[in-house]
Amino acid sequence: MLYQNKLFVNRKNNIIPDMSKGLSWLETHANTLKNINRGIERETLRVNLDGHLATTNHPKSFGSALKHTCITTDFAEALLEFITPVDQNINRIFVLLRDIHRYVTRTIDHERLWPFSMPCIIDDINNIQLAQYGSSNIGKMKMLYREGLKNRYGVPMQLISGVHYNFSLPLLFWQKWADISDVESGKKVISSGYLHLIRNYYRFGWIIPYLFGSSPAICSSFLQERKSHLQFKTNGHGTMWLPYATSLRLSNFGYTNTLQSNLPITFNSLEEYVSALKIATKTPSKKYQAMGIKDIHGNRLQLNTNVLQIENELYTPIRPKRVSRVGESLSDSLLYNGIEYIEVRSLDINPFSVIGINIDEINFLDLFLIWCILADSPEMSTNELTCIRKTWNRIVLEGRKPDQIIIFGCQENEYKLLEIVEALFADLYRIAKILDRSHAITHYQHLCKQLFKSFKDPELTYSARILQLIKKNGLIETGMSLSNKYYSLLFKEPLEIFTNDDFTRQAHESIIAQKILEIKDRFNSIK
Question: Which of 51, 356, 47 is CA-nearest to residue 212?
Fold first, then answer.
């Protein structure tokens, strides 16, 4: 049972924002949320059968990593990224993602897909080939950008994998909620609404890594380029962990940039956000200036010496997005055309799922993101954002600690984690009842009840469950056991929506598209 008595206490202390207006509105407008657009991006490393990072190139049968719409690479040739088409049907999205996994599994042969966010065994980092995108101008820029990432943050950090969830509310929602007529005339209002959502996600989104974080441990080879003050436990055979960690991936030890912590990037207005982002891409960093643009042999080391080489280098748990036109920067696209969707970036790879994510995670994210848009969301100062980052870091490093306490925002008062969550889940449960009623189901209410148990018993969380296996068998052994299990399952399963011809055609078309781009760039260079 979700306790209601804490609700008043926390509202009185201005902890949980008021959403009485939002709940009242949702009671009569639940149908506006039936056509949410969604998309999933899943990263995964290709590994050898012994748990070492694969050193082979991106398979040619997959086509061009630069132009393929579903199968590409991220930082390195061995780091795959699977991208689903945008869809409103959750079940269909998962079938599409599973089809991509099925096809890839049958193609990589003597390799496996790593089931964890934190990397496998990394041998000589100098032998790891960065992602290759050909000789076009954009291809060369993407490769140099990755060279900069390697030199700025080190290879191990860039091999950390995750799952990104793209989410956009239907036009009908905005028409009823914000009284707009169409996307074009209402783009400022819609953008303001998404920033409203993002601010609430920053303040309370740490519940996502608490519930679904799955990276409490690392392979010791991850430390070969860096030092850590964290007090890791170890089995003496290459496996290291923190007893109460939920997501090392999201910690200051994981996928992070300490220089970015000082950036005055908030989410109070689109103009303010874009301006701060542009400043970060134009402001020189003393650290990166000292590194230089080229080495003593004349080889380029990074795109530039600014705090951010490009806008995508900003590491955040959630960010505003839209599809940009060719040659248009993300910030310009956002400023002139408005926010189209938001990208949630705080999901670890789920090691208990054959495709790295399950439907419960998406359903809960939908529920939570709806709460974020309906609940009051005051403006956020840079000081508050700094305090919020500390709360996130406490949850990802020791969130399962018994009787965990947190400081909300920059307040001096300490609160028990369970106390805050009880009030938050009381709201979520009320939204779940409305959504279930509108869909004639009980799924959202059941999901709330099940997930709330994880706060009363942290051993039910993904991180606790996977750590139990890792401590018993070792990180690499556990990872390879799961990889082999999922390989066998996927290899046998037939494609359901995509066909082999679809993948063959996409590969062929992507290769042609890259060649055309390269020819155009060569032609323009000699004009």
Answer: 356
Cβ atoms of 71 and 104 within 8 Å: the answer is: yes
Q: How many residues does the chain have?
A: 527
Residue 57 belongs to domain spanning: 5-256+318-526
SS3 14: coil
List C-alpha distances in Å: 292 to 150, 196, 289. Answer: 14, 39, 5
Residue 288 vs residues 150, 277, 315: alpha-carbon distances, Å: 12, 18, 17
φ, ψ dihedrals at 234, nearest 5°: -145, 150
With respect to residue 463, please indicate whether it lies within any of the assigned structural domains.
yes
Task: List the single range of 92-96, 135-139, 261-265 with lowest mean pLDDT.
Answer: 261-265
3-class state of residue 67 by DSSP: coil
CATH number at residue 46: 3.30.590.20
**Residue 409 belongs to some domain of the structure:** yes
Under a CB-based contact definition with an 8 Å cutoff, are residues 203 and 409 in contact?
A: yes
SS3 state of residue 92: helix
Give the amino acid at 452: F
What total number of domains does the chain contain? 1
Q: What are phi and psi of 43, to 5 degrees?
A: -100, 150
pLDDT tens, position by position, 446-502: 999 999 999 999 999 999 999 999 999 999 999 999 999 999 999 999 999 999 999
Token pair 């393929």: residue:
68
